[in-house]
């Protein structure tokens, strides 16, 4: 059962490389209880720069009560992107738990 207090993945998309494409892009939307919570999350995440900043591009935007996330990297850096995305979701979990506790 989903709680309105928890973010929820609405859509996700992975553009996998073929022989003529050199980059991989992963996109998804997370829904929050309100635009305020989505904005707080974005602002908190913006402070943390990517560890692989020179290899991975992360874009985070707020659209109403959704957080729109995009990660892009060269196809040779997919392992680094996997680590970055895993860390990103750990941060989302911590931010969400903190907002839930503080209201």
Question: How would you describe this protein?
Answer:
With 103 residues, the chain is of the alpha+beta class. It is built from two helices and four strands, in the order ββαββα. A four-stranded antiparallel β-sheet has the order 1-2-4-3, with helices on one face. The mean pLDDT is 84.
Concise overview:
This protein is α+β, with helices and mostly antiparallel strands. It has helices at about 35-45, 80-100, and strands spanning about 10-15, 25-30, 55-65, 65-75.
Q: How many H/I helices? A: 2
Structural class: alpha+beta
Strand content: 25-35%
Oligomer: single chain
Order of helices and strands: EEHEEH
The percent of residues in helical segments reads 25-40%
Give the strand tally: 4
Biggest β-sheet strands, sense, barrel: 4 strands, antiparallel
What's the layout of helices and strands?
Layout: E1 8-15, E2 23-31, H1 35-47, E3 56-63, E4 66-74, H2 78-102
Antiparallel strand pairs: 1-2, 2-4, 3-4
Helix pairs in contact: 1-2
Structural features:
103 residues, four-stranded antiparallel β-sheet, 4 strands, alpha+beta, 2 helices, single chain
């Amino acid at each position: 059962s989903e709680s309105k207090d928890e973010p929820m993945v609405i859509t996700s998309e992975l553009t996998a490389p073929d022989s003529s494409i050199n980059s991989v892009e992963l996109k998804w939307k997370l829904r929050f209880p309100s635009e305020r919570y989505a904005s707080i999350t974005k602002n908190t995440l913006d402070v943390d720069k990517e560890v692989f900043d020179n290899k991975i591009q992360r874009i985070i935007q707020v659209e109403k009560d959704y957080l729109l996330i995009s990660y892009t990297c060269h196809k040779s850096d997919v392992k680094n992107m996997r680590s970055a995305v895993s860390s990103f979701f750990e941060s989302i979990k911590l931010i969400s738990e903190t907002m839930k506790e503080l209201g």
